[in-house]
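Field log, afternoon session.

UNIT: design team B
ACTIVITY: writing a sequence onto a fixed backbone
BACKBONE:
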């Protein structure tokens, strides 16, 4: 149960600020270029994480203590970001937070796997993260108003900071997970061998498609909250709850993923997942006047995440040599959390600014055709070029 709550708090930190980060930066008057720089912080942290958390922290720090110190520093940085109203101080606080938070995503997984009797139980633990993300949205019904300004919206960082400090304390109660000795058989340069896997056509194709879908996926978080509040007309204190419906659907979809993979196989499952993005953005583009349709289409998030990203993680774990699996997962995580985040943070604020009229109205129909088209391109590449040697997992994975 402690591992479940560790994951819940871990993802609640992220879920508290992520939906409203870009609208908040707009309220502070940050330019699209400045917003892109903030968005690049996770890319920087992801690269640093490959070499620090995987190659240094694992060797020298007990994982639960690393988690405690990281979340203590991260919580203070988030509180600092809440009170930073100019770009320089805000960027410094957010970058420092990113550098200490992103590595904890893999470290928390390390703790979970180290203390589970059966790796198949990880899905049940990881479900705590989804629950935490959903629960993090609910306080803002009361903390924000329908038309909140930056003085109110900065609460996203105060809430996230408070959760981070709580997790710092809670981490010290987690089971002891000692550092792994350098002689444990893990290649210190396994990340270099993981890059070598890209010479295999099937891995290279999946890498390209994951890059495309990571841009689309991160673009959703860049644009969705502002779209719901400014175009659809959903109150600012309810938009995060509406977005959290996608995480609720994610829990249900993850429960079905093992059976879906066994029935449809790698390629079709991934195609369905990436087309979920296309369908969602097309609904945003053409059904913005229908509040029920826009709320309902949030449920596609479960398909988008489980059928593509979770399937990618399972595929990599199955096809990669055992001694480079962790680094290979980190390589794909670099796309999902890092590179895709950087590109989306630069591309979509720039397009939003370019397609905003003199009256301040954004041409969302035109804007959302871009990620819909990218997702469709990814699905076409999968259909034509992705040829795995196995059609499905050797044994249907128990995700939850």
């Amino acid at each position: 149960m402690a591992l479940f709550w560790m994951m819940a708090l871990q993802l609640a930190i992220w879920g508290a600020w992520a939906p409203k980060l870009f609208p908040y930066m707009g309220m502070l008057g940050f330019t699209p270029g400045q917003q892109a720089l903030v968005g690049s912080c996770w890319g920087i942290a992801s690269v640093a994480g490959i070499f620090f958390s995987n190659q240094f922290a694992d060797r020298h720090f007990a994982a639960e203590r690393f988690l405690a110190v990281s979340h203590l520093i991260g919580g203070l940085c988030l509180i600092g970001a809440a009170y930073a109203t100019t770009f320089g101080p805000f960027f410094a606080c957010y970058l420092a937070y990113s550098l200490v938070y992103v590595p904890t995503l893999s470290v928390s997984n390390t703790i979970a796997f180290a203390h589970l009797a059966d790796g198949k139980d990880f899905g049940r633990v990881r479900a705590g993260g989804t629950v935490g993300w959903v629960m993090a949205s609910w306080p803002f019904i009361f903390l924000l108003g329908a038309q909140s300004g930056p003085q109110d919206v900065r609460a996203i960082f105060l809430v996230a900071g408070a959760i981070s400090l709580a997790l710092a304390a809670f981490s010290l109660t987690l089971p002891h997970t000692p550092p792994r000795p350098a002689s444990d058989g893990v290649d210190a340069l396994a990340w270099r061998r993981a890059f070598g896997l890209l010479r295999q056509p099937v891995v290279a194709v999946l890498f390209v498609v994951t890059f495309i879908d990571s841009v689309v996926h991160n673009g959703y978080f860049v644009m969705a909250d502002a779209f719901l509040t400014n175009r659809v007309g959903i109150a600012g204190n309810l938009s995060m709850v509406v977005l959290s419906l996608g995480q609720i659907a994610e829990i249900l979809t993850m429960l079905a993923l093992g059976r879906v993979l066994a029935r449809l196989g790698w390629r079709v499952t991934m195609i369905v997942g990436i087309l979920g993005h296309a369908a969602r953005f097309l609904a945003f583009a053409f059904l913005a006047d229908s509040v029920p349709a826009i709320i309902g289409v949030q449920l596609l998030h479960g398909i988008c995440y489980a059928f593509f990203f979770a399937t990618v993680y399972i595929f990599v774990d199955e096809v990669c040599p055992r001694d480079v699996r962790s680094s290979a997962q980190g390589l794909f995580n670099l796309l999902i959390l890092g590179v895709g985040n950087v590109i989306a943070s630069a591309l979509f604020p720039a397009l939003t600014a370019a397609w905003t009229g003199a009256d301040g109205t954004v041409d969302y129909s035109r804007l959302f055709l871009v990620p819909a088209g990218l997702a469709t391109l990814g699905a076409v590449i999968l259909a034509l070029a992705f040829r795995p040697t196995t059609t499905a997992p050797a044994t249907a994975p128990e995700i939850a």
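LOG NOTE: The mean pLDDT is 87.
NEXT ACTIVITY: expression trials, pending approval
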